[in-house]
Amino acid sequence: MPLYANFEETHNAAEAFLAGNIFQAFDFCTQYDGWLLTHLCILFEKKGMLDKPVYANLEHGETIQMGCLEYFKIVYAACIKNECGLWKEGFIYLLSCGKIGKEAIHEHLKLLDIEDEHRLKEVAEFCVANDMKEEGLALYEKKATACFEVQDYRKAIHYYELAENQECLDKVLIKIIQDYSATGNLIDVGIRKSYDSTYYKAYNYLLIMNEHMDNLDYTAAGDKLKELVQWVNLPQFVLPIIFQEGVKLVENKECRLDADTLLMLKKIWKLLQRKEPLDPEFDTFLDTSAITLSRALDRMTE
């Protein structure tokens, strides 16, 4: 018997029952009437007439043995989920079947439409609440990865948060910072939970500094830059971006950076000079910015 049945109304189980072919009738019911199937199964079990085990074939080729009642609960659950849309009721039936029921839920989850975000969250929450947290978080992660692939970073961050996947959160933040370096646009992804990742800290510094610059508050932007350049654990890939932002503030006449900040920018400049060339345009920028920094430092001593 197949573990997941096709419910087209193609057989009349009654004939098999009348002929005394009980198990053949049950098998026909998997294609005809799931409701009748399960309740007849309960009746026959109470009468002690279901002493024969059922062997079910799994997708990966394994054959497993289970009780008749378990088997027909699984079939009925698939029926009310697929035909009636009663996924929660179906999953509750499956949870009453122990390990094999959870395996069946796992197979159903593979077919879940992750574009339906309301249903996705409902199913994930159900899994988490019913000792299937790993499966629930995996649904969030699947949705997050799909969002990341189409560059919907806000949603990717949201679902990776729900999936409790900090490594993938960092992956998104790194990509956002890299895109910012290329485009000059830094999006606010709206992280709400407490999150102390190194990459989030770098992103947050840049975000706040940009907000100050957009609001023409160059003093506050300069203060945030100072905090950033003095940060001991500053990720190395962020250095070119920090340096570019710093030079913008140095060139802004309304911003007054102190000597310590200017010296830290010069230190970053030296580090970038020692690295492999990034691109000809950036190399030219490094050459001209060296003059800008030197003049700014000279003014500090006048």
Automatic annotation (TrEMBL):
GO MF assignments: structural constituent of nuclear pore
Gene Ontology BP annotations: mRNA export from nucleus; positive regulation of DNA-templated transcription; protein import into nucleus
Top-level taxon of origin: Eukaryota
Major location category of this protein: nucleus
Keyword terms: Membrane, mRNA transport, Nuclear pore complex, Nucleus, Protein transport, Translocation, Transport
Localization, UniProt: Nucleus, Nuclear pore complex
GO cellular component, one term: nuclear pore outer ring
InterPro entries named in the record: Nucleoporin_Nup85
Oligomer status and interactors: Component of the nuclear pore complex (NPC).
Function, as annotated: Functions as a component of the nuclear pore complex (NPC).
Family under the similarity heading: Belongs to the nucleoporin Nup85 family.
Stated name of the protein: Nuclear pore complex protein Nup85
Organism annotation: Rhizopus microsporus ATCC 52813
